[in-house]
Amino acid sequence: AKQKGRDHFQFYVASIDQEIRDRKQLEKDMAQALSLNQLHLVYQPQINLETKRIIGAEALLRWDHPVRGLVPPDYFIPVAESNGSIVEIGQWVLDQACMQASRWADIGIPLRIAVNLSAVQLRREQIVDDILGTLRRHDIPAGRLELEVTETSFMTNLADAVAKLHSLNRAGISIAVDDFGTGYSSLTYLKKMPVQHLKIDKQFIRDLLINEEDTRIANTIIDLGRSLNLTVVAEGVETAEQEYYLSQRGCKLAQGYFFSKPLRPADFEKFVHEFHQKVTE
Ligand code: C2E
Ligand code: CA
Ligand code: CA
Ligand code: CA
Fold this sequence. Notes:
Helix content is 52%, strand content 19%. With 281 residues, it is α/β, with parallel strands linked by helices. The mean pLDDT is 93. The structure holds ligand C2E and calcium ion (3 copies). One calcium ion binds next to β6. Residues 178-179 line the site of one calcium ion (CA).
């Protein structure tokens, strides 16, 4: 039994050791991703369910590594957050998204761009100046930018987060609470935070109309949004049934594969033109 225990122990050490090396390599690869041009953004349209028009797009980060392939952001963003590289990457994302918004305005599609802002970015002292500076550099009106923050952003220092979001908000930038209902939701945050949008997380939309609890949770978020005067956005809408239900129930905005998956800029432009043609026909 003793012998077996030792083997187990060695196996354990070896696998931890491997894990640490894998992680170090991942961090090294990520540190180079920007300079090696391995990052790009894709854009997912956000649709107004009443007017059936595209009102904006969420920018989503993609990392295409020559050997690893497409690395999912759910996997590499937490790593970038823990080693701080999210600060540089996040600024790059903001720059790219603003460049895109400016180009789209030039070709007649003045859409609002939603950018995910990490809690780590929001904690930085210069973040407000950095964001406003980026808008100015690209000559984008602040109303064209939306920042998506998660509830974790409010946790470490509520007063600090409130102050920064207020400054951004006063400048004209709108704020959305992302993944609403999945984190440490507190109605205190909603009361104190200058937010305009609530995003129903896709985990509640996936089994909408199939799972009774999920349907009730979605209903509750929609009602909460209405009573607090916040626009509700459903993410992960994949079926016509979900789209119909949400629009009847009073959810104003939606995004998901039912409309379109996140697209490269050229495909996104094509999609916008075709979508609006179809609707007006
Ligand atoms: P998120 O902000 O909640 O983004 C929504 C995710 O749902 C995206 O995954 C999107 O591609 C996916 N999605 C959209 N429509 C559907 C649908 O109909 N069905 C399903 N099953 N999924 C759908 P993605 O692109 O893999 O991003 C994952 C997460 O990574 C994001 O979740 C966000 O938290 C983070 N992320 C992505 N880009 C950035 C970024 O630039 N900065 C930061 N800080 N985080 C980012
Ligand atoms: Ca988001
Ligand atoms: Ca989400
Ligand atoms: Ca998320």
